[in-house]
Design goal:
Helix content: 25-40%
Strand content: 5-15%
Structural class: alpha+beta
Number of helices: 5
Oligomer: single chain
Strand order of the largest sheet: 1-2
Number of strands: 4
Distance between the termini: 18 Å
Order of helices and strands: HEHHEHEEH
Length: 107
């Protein structure tokens, strides 16, 4: 595989997440061979150049929490995008979460 750089590898993995499923920032970091770079994965998704094509809304934190400042409109937009794909989102203490045991996948 041609070296695409860190962001390119992140976008490649995220593009493979199926509809109705989520993964964590840490899973993506591990998958691309940089297991301590989950924050950098988050930044790469924050600057996603193709939000309609690279489904960054399918990435959550290790607890299943949605991004409080989702790059493309806030947590409510991420919630709507996930729910449109059949992912159940719940509210706890003012934050949105998904059940990783039910909707998460292993990479």
């Amino acid at each position: 595989m041609k070296d695409q750089g860190f962001f390119g590898r992140v976008y490649e993995v995220v593009s493979q997440i199926p509809k109705g499923r989520v993964v964590t920032y840490g899973q993506i970091a591990a998958k691309i061979g940089s297991p301590r770079s989950s924050r950098a994965v988050g930044y790469a998704l924050h600057v996603n150049p193709l939000p309609g094509i690279i489904p960054c809304h399918r990435v959550v934190n290790r607890e299943g929490r949605l991004a409080p400042a989702f790059a493309f409109g806030g947590a409510n937009i991420q919630k709507q995008l996930l729910e449109a794909e059949g992912v159940k989102v719940f509210d706890r203490d003012g934050c949105f979460y998904v059940d990783l045991g039910r909707f998460g996948i292993l990479l």
